[in-house]
Automatic annotation (TrEMBL):
Name this protein carries in UniProt: Methyltransferase FkbM domain-containing protein
Annotated Gene3D superfamilies: Vaccinia Virus protein VP39 (3.40.50.150)
Species annotation: Prymnesium parvum (Toxic golden alga)
Annotated TM spans: none
All residue ranges annotated as the Methyltransferase FkbM domain in the record: 32-198
InterPro entries reported for this sequence: FkbM_mtfrase (IPR006342), SAM-dependent_MTases_sf (IPR029063)
Superkingdom of source: Eukaryota
UniProt-listed Pfam families: Methyltransf_21
Length: 320
């Protein structure tokens, strides 16, 4: 393996790479939106050398790093400064910005507009918000991962035409989401994915600093028979690490009792769903569940590893 192993999300990475290896992902290019420092784009490019991998990020320093470190190894990587949304606009950073470093995240693109994160550096230069419909007007999209800090719904709306263009080759989508940060947004996102005819699966694995961060795997409903034969999905589902979710039940996942507003780990939205509180809460829940009739959800089904503490390779796990 040439690419560095991504430092987190071992389960999610394994599922996605497994679907590629099984030939379950339709033909076409890959989009890694919110590419950050590029480990995931490199992973996709190495696993699928015949596909173009579009690595998109608003920070120019990230794109320069990807171009320098990974593109020479895998020429199928296409780094690009920008973001994804539902309209083409230019985002101008504030006049006073901190100096960015590779791997930084700078902004939260939400329904309220662009919000510059308090403790994160902003891009030093203006960048364009792009639509998937425009980017793929003459190119086939096979897989897209959206880690766009609150802009997931806008990115999907900006790609609805491409996503629905060919019902025989609908792309596989993955979305990173803070499940309880904005329940109305989460609800709306799941409704929209359903309107695009996707079955949505939640990967029970922490994917960020907030412990309600989860990756969603969206599979085309019209290709259900195609995905039912996937051994990767079968293993993840039977291990209770992959759950079918919709707008009605998703808010019962991802430490729902602890991370909903006003819950024991979310008295203050600025310090919501952090690992120390979750660990203490989960310990209490295990004690309570052990003493009960065990009719409620088994707390052991929750992710119990801290973010970035999961082993990241078979070498780490088994010494192979």
């Amino acid at each position: 393996m040439v690419c560095p192993t991504p430092p987190s999300e071992l389960l999610f990475n394994s599922i996605v790479l497994g679907l590629f290896a099984e030939g379950k992902v339709p033909g076409g290019s890959v989009v890694d939106a919110g590419a950050n420092s590029g480990e995931w784009a490199c992973m996709y490019a190495e696993a699928q050398p015949s596909r173009l991998v579009h690595a998109i990020d608003p920070l120019e320093v990230n794109i320069k790093s990807i171009s320098r470190k990974f593109q020479p190894l895998f020429p199928n990587i296409r780094p690009r400064v920008g973001g994804l949304g539902d309209k083409t606009v230019t985002i101008v950073p504030p006049k006073r910005v901190a100096r960015a470093r590779a791997g930084s995240a700078a902004l939260d693109i939400s329904k309220k507009g662009t919000v510059w994160l308090d403790k994160a550096p902003a891009p030093a230069t203006a960048f364009s918000m792009l639509r998937l419909d425009d980017l793929f007007a003459n190119e086939t999209l096979g897989f897209a991962h959206l880690d766009v800090e609150g802009g997931e719904l806008a990115a999907l709306r900006g790609g609805a035409r491409v996503i629905q263009r060919d019902r025989r080759a609908v792309p596989v989508l993955t979305v990173e989401l803070h499940v309880h940060d904005d329940p109305a947004f989460t609800h709306e996102l799941l409704i929209f994915l359903n309107s695009l005819q996707y079955t949505v699966l939640l990967v029970e694995e922490v994917c960020g600093v907030r412990y309600d961060c989860r990756n969603l795997l969206a599979l085309p409903k019209g290709l259900g028979a195609h995905f039912r034969t996937s051994q990767v999905l079968r293993v993840a589902a039977t291990s209770e690490r992959l759950f079918v979710v919709n707008s009605s039940n998703i808010l019962t996942h991802a430490y729902a009792l602890a991370c909903t507003r006003g819950g024991p780990c979310c008295h203050d939205s600025r310090y919501c769903c952090k690992h120390r509180c979750i660990r203490a809460w989960l310990h209490k829940e295990m004690k309570r569940w052990d003493a009960s009739d065990k009719s409620s959800r088994d707390p052991r089904l929750f992710t119990r590893l801290e973010w970035l503490s999961a082993k990241t390779s078979l070498t780490d796990l088994f010494g192979l």
